[in-house]
Write a structure and sequence with these properties.
Helix content is 32%, strand content 25%. With 427 residues, the chain is α+β, with helices and mostly antiparallel strands.
Length: 427
């Protein structure tokens, strides 16, 4: 089977499992860092200026079509290549993805609109097509306080802020646009802040039915974790202990998939459970595997990496062919070690020391001492851990203890000295 792969995420999996792989790469550091021996494994490599360039993407499709290459599948694991994947699928005549599915899963407004059409509850929300001309009074009337401002096409809580009153809203509208990273636009959504639990649901589907279906609860909602009160991460809930929740979320996820046009492939769904009412509210859904180390957590539970499962399904594999085996611990989860403030990294935990901990099943470091890290959002991941325990309570206690013990220390830019590093947060 011939595959067209966008960007480099999990590229080794794609190269190892597909018959023939063509790559579409931009000039980002990750793509440029691919070694020659890896590039040589691709059947062809297309370098483009941006995944948002219709001209560049059309040229890729034009070459593939006129050469008669016959692409069977498009693989797009990252969040910000979903539109490109939908556009290329349309040009190449492929049915497993589309621009419509990309819009329904990338634009949070469209997700909520489709969810409401399907009778699924969401938080109150209001579309802001341009931050510069946003009307604070209209936002306040539609949503009320507290509210959350987030990019309509954002990911990982980047440029997401909680607003408690009118003064805070006016300040956020003035300043947030200046901090937007590329490729985010100034189109935003304001939505009602939900006080409650936050879950992520990670699944792979075939013909509208789940191959795998995992419900994880964040140790605390991500914006709350960012305030420094809890660990960053989540625990994968056992279906045997949360059967009712699993049944409710399976029904919700299936209905939402139908509303946005998903029949197969991976999804990553975010849901809130409201404290006062117990309602499950749709937040957003992505047509990809979960970010951070979600796929590694899936592997720790059942022996097969989440990316492998998604790719196996995409390549028309059989679920029975995957070698699922019970993990070392009955309860697993993911933990993200993040700095307390932006700056130059002074020190990161030693990986061998992390792996020596009996509850740490895996560790991956994405930033080293000397790197500059932006901690203006909760997804400033530096070290990602997969952890395990005998019970949910033990895992959460372990996550908090690890967060307190192993720190990502930073210093202000221009002063990367240990003396300038922030003090450890008290336990």
């Amino acid at each position: 089977m011939k595959v067209l792969m966008l960007r480099h995420n999990l590229h080794q999996l794609v190269l190892d499992h597909a018959d023939e792989v063509y790559a579409v790469l931009d000039r980002s550091p990750g793509c440029l860092a691919l070694p020659p021996e890896t590039l040589a494994r691709f059947a062809g490599v297309y370098w483009i200026s941006s995944y948002d360039s219709l001209e560049d993407l059309s040229a890729v499709a034009g070459d593939l079509l006129t050469r008669g290459t016959g692409i069977d599948r498009i693989v797009s694991f990252p969040e910000f290549t979903q539109y490109a994947a939908g556009y290329l699928a349309h040009l190449l005549g492929l049915e497993h993805f589309s621009p419509s599915v990309a819009l329904g899963t990338r634009d949070k407004r469209v997700t909520k609109f489709r969810a409401a059409q399907a009778g699924l509850p969401t938080a109150r929300w209001y579309s802001i097509p341009d931050l510069a001309t946003a009307d604070p009074a209209a936002i306040e009337q539609a949503v009320g306080y507290p509210l959350v401002l987030k990019p309509a096409g954002g990911w990982g809580t980047v440029s997401t802020v909680k607003v408690d009153d009118s003064a805070g809203l006016e300040e956020a509208l003035r300043t947030i646009a200046d901090a937007l990273p590329s490729p985010l636009s100034a189109q935003f959504v304001a939505e009602e802040f939900i006080a409650g639990e936050e879950f992520h649901v990670d699944a792979v589907w075939r013909d509208g039915r789940p191959w795998i279906f995992h419900v994880s609860r964040y140790f605390s909602p991500r914006l709350q974790a960012w305030s420094g009160k809890t660990a960053h991460g989540s625990v994968l809930l056992r279906e045997s202990e949360f059967a009712d929740l699993y049944a409710q979320l399976l029904k919700l996820n299936t209905q939402l998939n139908s509303a946005v046009g998903i029949e197969r492939g991976a999804t990553h769904l975010e849901v809130f459970r409201e404290h006062d009412t117990g309602r499950l509210l749709v937040s957003e859904i992505a047509s990809r595997v979960g970010g951070a180390n979600v796929s590694d957590v899936v592997e720790a539970l059942g022996g097969v990496h989440g990316g492998v499962i998604a790719l196996h399904e995409l390549l028309d594999g059989d679920l029975a062919d995957l070698p699922f085996t019970p993990g070392r611990y009955p309860v697993v989860g993911g933990l993200c070690l993040v700095p307390e403030r932006s700056g130059v990294i002074v020190s990161v935990p030693d990986r061998s020391e992390l792996l020596a901990h009996p509850n740490v099943l895996g560790a991956a470091t994405y930033h080293q001492a000397g790197d500059h890290v932006d901690a203006s959002h909760p997804s400033a991941w530096c070290t990602l851990l997969v952890i395990g325990a005998e019970t949910e309570s033990e895992l959460e206690q372990t996550a908090l203890a690890l967060s307190e013990t192993f720190k990502i220390r930073t210093a202000p830019a221009g002063d990367p000295s240990p003396a300038a590093a922030p003090p450890a947060r008290p336990a």
